[in-house]
Amino acid sequence: MSHQYNNGKPINIGDRVVYAGVIGRVVFIIEDDRYSPGFVRDDWAYRRLGLGIKLRNGQLFVLDGPDDDLKPSSRGTHGSD
Predict the structure, then answer these.
(1) CA atoms within 13 A of residue 55's CA, in its CB half-sphere
(2) Model-level pTM?
(3) Alpha-carbon torsion 7, 12, 78, 56, what sign?
């Protein structure tokens, strides 16, 4: 199952996003078994689904799926903000 933004575009690891008004980056997608460096599958697999958003302010959100607060900003390549 691949997650999509509300505009229908697929969510990818490394995408720069805005979540609840704060810039962040998609760092993992559990059900696709894709993780950025520094995020280990074993730490998150118990959830079975969801995506991780690491915000610029250091907070990490794990969402069951995209919601109205998640907006794409630009495509990334696993880099940091």
Answers:
(1) 16
(2) 0.86
(3) positive
Structure confidence by residue, pLDDT tens digits, 40-79: 999 998 998 999 999 999 999 999 988 889 999 976 554 4
Q: Please state, in angstroms and rounded to a whole number, the distance separating the CA atoms of residues 23 and 39.
A: 19
* Long-range Cβ pairs for the range 41-47 (8 Å, 24+): none
CA 47 to each of CA 20, 31, 63, 73: distance values in angstroms, whole numbers, following the listed order? 22, 9, 10, 26
The domain limits of the chain are 16-73
CA distance 32 to 29: 6
Calculate the alpha carbon distances from 16 to 26, 33, 42 in Å: 7, 19, 24
Residue at token pair 């969510």: 11
Let me know: does 17 contact 70? Beta carbons within 8 Å. Answer: yes
